[in-house]
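Researcher: Here's the sequence for the chain we discussed earlier.
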Amino acid sequence: MRKKILKEQKGFAGSDALISVLIITLFAGLIATISYNIYLSNTSVKRMSKATGYIVDMFEYIDKTYYDEVTKDNLKKYFNDKYNEEAKMIDDGEDANSPYTATLEVTKYNETEGNQDKKDLVKEIKMTVKYKLGSKEQKIEMSTVKTKETNVYEY
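Model: Thanks. This is the structure I predict for it:
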C-alpha cells in the first residue's frame, strides 16, 4: 500500500508553482525597493556634499576679499565665472537651468532694524543652494559674517 502512494505523487502541483512564483516576486520587489533607497541615499549625500562645497568655497573667498568688495554683484560674478554651467547664482525670482542654483543675501548690520546709528563694520552673508533629488527640491542654507578690516599704524 505504501508503494502505491509514493508512485502516485508526480512532481509539483500547480499551487506549489504559484506559491513559489509569488515568493520570488515578493523578494524581487523588496530587493528592488531597498536598492532604490540605497541609491537615493548615496545620491543625496553626494549632492549635499557638492552644495556644501559651493558654500564653503564662497565663504573662503569672502574671507580673502576686502570688506568694501563684498557686494552681491561681485560675489555673484565670482561664483558664476568659477562654476559656469554646473552651478548658477541667481537673484530671487530668476529661473536657472542648472543642477544647482544658489542665492545670496548681503546685509549690512547697520542697516538692520535698531542698528541704524552704528558704524558700517559688519556684513552678514547668507547663501542658499538648491538642487533636485528625484522629484523633491532640497536646499542648504548657511551664513557667515564679514568684518571690516582696520589699519592701525604705530610709530
